[in-house]
Design goal:
The protein is α+β, with helices and mostly antiparallel strands. It has 29 helices and nine strands.
Length: about 850
């Protein structure tokens, strides 16, 4: 089989090198022509778990309560917030923001109705005759209201009354919702195998339409964020301003990724060039591997653009990895060719040299490709769309790296004259130090390995998935500073909603334990409402006319009992250290009590629901109540900057408290919001990735047994890589670096690339050992040959990925440094621990002195 394939390869590539190269260049050129269509995706959907059952509920709640995306602008003027100059600039800033395309409305301290400046009557509220800060009002009273109001405090104005927030509400993208629902319905049916051939075509069209719309929407959003920043910049001389909100975070993440792609992609290429020149001291052996790498990357980028396969924050790193993997294969081919050429006589033809190089390297390179595929395929089952995409991209990319290396590099060599003497390099003496250490410091190597194993086990036991999203960014970025300001002064950043279903009528207690807050108004009811006038009384009678025996309230929540239950949850959430601003129907109830100067009863609540003007309803009722289904919504924001935030624990404690302490039925309590979705994604990392690493190692172990035809050799070969993977994960645990969408890929990368060293080293050891059947001398020969190629690739990987430490995106920094550390651990394991274990256990049989 192998001989037949090799003969076909020799006839098509080695004997027709120019045609082979032209074919490769034609294919790459055709794909590269589509590079203009390459797109990035940093939408909120890329941060959630694929197929998450909570995601559909989250979208349903968003539609029911008409939640929209919004930007937050924090404004801290140099002068007093309520001074004429500050308010005039705030008015102008508000107008400039409201005039931006795609903005539905802007809410600021200038727009909200004033209810306690001075105290208004119920008739003023129901008639809509309310003042705002734009009217002639007592600003001291206004300042006191914003400081104490259950609605506005820590939402529109900070506790110290120096910072205010403008909420820029964006127009609802109904087309997005329509396309999303259509796509998701067809996707769900496709997973169940229910689509006909015609419907499969419809699904493909729906998927493409959705992707096209997302790209356009994302561009509009980026333009909007850029315009908002431009507007804000015009006010920075008069105060401190920050821009926040999920659209801004998504836009900036795309900018960071684009910058990293260009800057660090270029930086890695420069490092590759410099290190190859230093290693080989020849431009030929520098340009040849580099050209192969660039062609592989160009092919993959063109393929992604052609297929409209969006790159995310995670999958954008595949470019650097593909460069490294292609370079590793190319360097192994170059080193092997140079070794053979240095030993060949003058009568050996170039075809013989290149054929022998390919024949000797095809099998180990094929197995390194397969084992790397297995490692990256483990990411596909993560359930997280960016990680899934990354896994598939790397799976395809690894195959492209293998094919491109064996199609381009040997073909170019065939067009060159035979190399009669290898260029000098300065690595052989260095790699021989590792061989000497293996011979003379074997005990130390084993002790160090055991120490690393113990430390790794301790570190892995301390791994966590909890992280602060704010820590993804450097503290010099606007994202970090804006989130910190909003968290500390304006109520928190990430959303959490508690949805309470109304209990069944038979389950509603006949009476609720009385307390002063919820005692009925009694006989004062008519007096309280007399101020509304006769017309209002007539409206009241019409609104409340009902058949005899019919319940006064048509909603459980607009009753004293319902409000009491909402307030219990509201107060509990408001008292948690991790939560910021909490809003619910309890806010309306508290304000009614303030307006009426006492307690509120069921009839007054019914009246309020019927008679409140639209401007009050949109603030106090509509966001927190649904009549069909009958449910109440407690909306709150969690402080993402909190050092004590443990999302999963917080959600479990909230549900447990509502069910066990407050007596809600479990099926009547629903938690939703971005906090829930993000937590689901993080928690899935353990089950879908950490637990599958063992399966990956089992698969690679079987492949090692097939390749090496020895159980002992397979165990010995895989041990250093297991230790390297454990070392990097253990280091994360010991250093407190949490697992997230990027760092979870480090284990797969360590296994995928690290096992390549073991395969090449053991394969060469098997070939060299029969020469004299001396384990130590074979170690020296292997270190002086294949050890050099391992050293070259590892040095380039370590230095190349270290460049990512300069990124503004902290996950990229962790990714770069951890990958570099993992590759260093894999190299040391393959050049020290692996040969030492071979010498100790003698898996190839007894040796000779």
């Amino acid at each position: 089989m192998f001989d037949a394939l090799f003969k076909a390869y020799e006839a098509s590539v080695l004997k027709r090198p120019l045609l082979s190269l032209l074919l490769v260049l034609a294919v790459v050129g055709a794909l590269v022509a589509n590079l203009g269509n390459l797109k990035l995706d940093a939408s909120s959907d890329s941060l959630v778990l694929e197929g998450d059952k909570d995601l559909q509920y989250f979208r349903e709640i968003g539609k029911r309560y008409h939640t929209e995306d919004f930007l937050i602008v924090t404004y801290r003027p140099n002068e007093d917030l309520y001074s004429d100059a500050a308010l005039e600039r705030l008015e102008k800033l508000r107008g400039d923001l409201a005039a931006m395309p795609g903005v539905a409305s802007v809410m600021s301290i200038l727009d909200v109705p004033l209810l306690q400046s001075p105290q208004v009557s119920l008739s003023a509220v129901t008639s809509g005759n309310l003042k705002t800060l734009r009217d002639d009002v007592d600003r001291k009273l206004v300042a006191a209201e914003f400081h104490s109001s259950p609605i506005y405090k820590s939402l529109l104005v900070s506790e110290d009354a120096k910072t205010t927030a403008l909420q820029v509400n964006l127009q609802r993208d109904d087309r997005y919702i329509e396309l999303l629902e259509r796509r998701d319905e067809l996707r769900a049916r496709d997973r169940r195998g229910e689509l006909s051939l015609v419907e499969q075509d419809m699904y493909a069209v729906a998927e493409q339409e959705f992707q096209d719309h997302v790209a356009m929407a994302q561009q509009r959003q980026s333009d909007l964020v850029a315009l908002a920043r431009e507007i804000i910049d015009g006010y920075r001389d008069h105060g401190t301003l920050f821009l926040g909100g999920l659209p801004m975070i998504a836009s900036d993440m795309i900018s960071f990724v684009e910058s990293d792609l260009v800057v660090f992609g270029t930086g890695i290429i420069v490092f590759i060039i410099v290190l190859l020149v230093v290693i080989f001291r020849s431009m030929v052996w520098t340009l040849l591997p580099l050209s192969t790498c660039l062609l592989a990357v160009a092919f993959m980028l063109g393929l992604l653009a052609t297929l409209d396969w969006r790159m995310t924050v995670i999958s954008s790193n595949f470019v650097a990895l593909l460069l490294i993997i292609t370079l590793a294969v190319s360097i192994h081919l170059v080193v092997r060719y140079r070794e053979l050429a240095a030993k060949a006589g003058d009568d050996v033809t170039q075809l013989t040299l290149v054929s022998e190089t390919v024949r000797l390297m095809a099998q180990p390179c094929l197995y390194t490709t397969l084992t790397t595929l297995v490692a990256f395929m483990s990411l596909v089952i993560s359930g997280i769309r960016p990680v899934i995409d990354f896994g598939w991209m790397m799976t395809i990319g690894v195959m492209v790296a293998f094919i491109m290396s064996f199609a381009v590099l040997p073909a170019v060599l065939m067009l060159m004259k035979p190399l009669r003497q290898a260029d000098s390099d300065n690595s052989q003496s260095f790699t021989r130090y590792f061989a000497a250490a293996t011979e003379n410091r074997g005990g130390v190597i084993i002790l160090v390995a055991l120490g690393v194993l113990v430390a790794s086990l301790i570190g892995v036991s301390q791994l966590k998935v909890e992280n602060r999203f704010i820590d993804y960014f450097k503290d010099t970025t606007e994202i970090y500073q804006g989130m910190e300001t909003i968290d500390a002064e304006l109520g928190g950043t990430i959303s959490l909603d508690i949805i309470l279903d109304a209990p069944q009528p038979e389950a509603v207690p006949a009476s609720v334990a009385a307390n002063d807050d919820f005692a009925p108004a009694g006989d004062d009811f008519e007096d309280d409402f007399a101020v509304a006038g006769d017309d209002f009384a007539d409206d009241f009678e019409d609104d409340f006319a009902s058949p005899v025996g019919a319940p006064v309230n048509d909603s459980y929540w607009f009753s004293v009992a319902g409000m009491a239950r909402v307030k219990e949850v509201h107060d509990y959430m408001d008292g948690l250290e991790e939560t910021g601003k909490v809003l619910s129907l309890a806010t309306l109830y508290e304000l009614m009590g303030l307006i009426l100067g006492g307690s509120v009863d069921d009839l007054q609540l019914k009246l309020a629901r019927s008679a409140l003007p639209e401007e009050i309803n949109t603030i106090l009722v509509d966001p927190y109540f649904s009549a069909d289904p009958d449910e109440a919504r407690i909306s709150l924001r969690v402080k993402e900057t909190s050092r004590t935030l443990q999302r999963d624990q917080l959600l479990k404690e909230v549900r447990a408290h509502l069910v066990n302490e407050l007596g809600f039925k479990d099926e009547n309590v629903h938690l939703t919001g971005m906090l829930v979705l993000y937590n689901n994604m993080l928690q899935s990392l353990f089950s879908s990735q950490i637990l599958t690493i063992s399966a990956v190692f089992a698969a690679i172990m079987l492949m090692f047994m097939v390749l090496f035809r020895s159980l002992w050799l397979a165990v010995i070969a895989i041990t250093p890589n297991m230790l390297a993977a454990g070392a990097v994960l253990g280091s994360m645990g010991l250093l407190g670096i949490p697992l997230d969408m990027m760092t979870i890929t480090i284990a797969a990368i360590t296994v995928g690339i690290g096992v390549d060293h073991a395969i090449h080293y053991v394969h060469r050891f098997q070939a060299e050992f029969p020469v004299d059947r001396n384990y130590i001398r074979t170690v020296y020969r292997c270190h002086g040959s294949i050890g050099k190629a391992m050293y070259y690739t590892s040095v380039i990987i370590i230095f190349g990925f270290s460049i990512l430490a300069l990124s503004n995106f902290n996950p990229s920094i962790y990714f770069g440094l951890l990958t570099a550390g993992a590759m260093l651990a894999a190299l040391l394991g393959s050049l020290l621990l692996l040969p030492r274990m071979i010498v100790i256990f003698k898996p190839l049989g007894p040796g000779q002195q």
